[in-house]
Amino acid sequence: GAGVSQSPSNKVTEKGKDVELRCDPISGHTALYWYRQSLGQGLEFLIYFQGNSAPDKSGLPSDRFSAERTGGSVSTLTIQRTQQEDSAVYLCASSFVATVFQNIQYFGAGTRLSVL
Amino acid sequence: QKEVEQNSGPLSVPEGAIASLNCTYSDRGSQSFFWYRQYSGKSPELIMFIYSNGDKEDGRFTAQLNKASQYVSLLIRDSQPSDSATYLCAVGGSEKLVFGKGTKLTVNP
Q1: Least confident of A36-45, A72-81, B42-51
Q2: CA of A20 to nearest chain B CA: how many angstroms apart?
Q3: What is the end-to-end Cα distance of chain B in Å, rounded?
Q4: Do B32 and A91 touch (CB under 8 A)?
Q5: A116 close to A14: Cβ distance less than 8 angstroms
Q6: Which residue among A43, B50, B70, B71 has the highest number of C-beta atoms inside a 10 angstrom radius?
Q7: Residue A22: strand pairing partners
Q8: What is the per-residue pLDDT for A1?
Q9: B43: nearest CB among A31, A98, A108
Q10: Cα-flanking dihedrals φ and ψ of residue B79, to 5°?
Q11: How many angstroms separate the CA of residue B60 from the nearest CA in chain A?
Q12: Between chains, do A103 and B97 touch, taking CB under 8 Å as contact?
């Protein structure tokens, strides 16, 4: 596609429910990143995928968070047993590759998650 | 832990003035430097990137990098009200980028 596509744009859920957030990167981009941005805060790195390599999960805040990337393209971020503190905007970005001089990241519009 | 520091602002400048946004970083091995603009309620959009010491100009925007001082800045000339946004500095090595918390800029008509 022309840009990074994320769905849904908004998600309201009840505490304790599981949610899935989807990201479709720019065609041809091999690196994909997930970030979280709480209100008025900076970007918090969650996880990144580079091609077929094992993902870097170092930013995932708890074992309730997981992500997968199928076929090297679309990625799904899953949050199990959601808590109110999970409420934030979840941003996905992609880049051509994850190497110096080619790691310009382009962002999707984000998914605004509200946990009631 | 790699850190990127920005003055949170808000930075307020009159229309037509030069806005100067600053960023320092802790990892001396950093090799790529980015400025993103984020309007309220929107996602970050890339404005500029710079890899080498010195200045890089693109229209009204100039990025300045000083690796010895671990300092990167963004100058916006002839500031416009439409430039009002939060500006995020991002610094990277070979893979991940570390983002600063951003500086909120307000350009007053």
Answers
A1: A36-45
A2: 19
A3: 40
A4: no
A5: yes
A6: A43
A7: A7, A76
A8: 52
A9: A108
A10: -55, 140
A11: 21
A12: yes
| β-bridge mates for residue B13, sequence order | B107
Phi, psi torsion values for A15, nearest 5 degrees: -50, 135
Q: Say if residue B47's pLDDT is above 80.
A: yes
Please give the order of strands across the beta sheet that includes B4-6. Answer: B4-6, B19-25, B71-76, B61-66, B54-58
Contact state of A45 with B44 under an 8 Å Cβ cutoff: no
Mean pLDDT of B9-34: 94
In single-letter form, the type of residue at position B2 comes to K
Lowest mean pLDDT among A30-44, A92-106, B68-82: A92-106
pLDDT at B7: 87
pLDDT for the residue A72: 76
Contact B96 A99 (CB under 8 A): no
Give the separation between CA B76 and CA B102, rounded to whole angstroms. 15
User: Sorting pLDDT into bands at 50, 70 and 90, what band is B94?
Assistant: low
Q: Which residues pair with A18 in a beta bridge?
A: none
Choose among B34, B95, B100: nearest Cβ to A42.
B100
Task: Phi first, then psi: give them for residue B75, nearest 5 degrees.
Answer: -110, 135
